[in-house]
Write a structure and sequence with these properties.
Length: 110
Amino acid sequence: MPIAWKPWLTAAGLSLMTACSAMNESASRREPAPEPPRVTDGEDACGVEHVQARVGRHFDAALGASLREASGADGLRVMRPGEAHTLDYRPERLNVRLDERDRITALDCG
């Protein structure tokens, strides 16, 4: 390659790198994420306190209906090990956490 091309290639390379770095700066200026909802310890929007005595029992459809009715929760989410779950928090939804044998290990709102 002739020596006369080297300054031009260097200038072109520096221009491209400068342009890319300017693009990265503008892309990194984003709006901050909204604050997550605040949850206090005293909040029981899903009625979980009314059904805590059922922890340890074997879960089936009839017990699920009973849990929802007794708690007054708007929704019921059954969470088994290894299953994917959304991370959205719904205070009026009752979460039923099960082990591998479908025994209730925990009940909570969310």
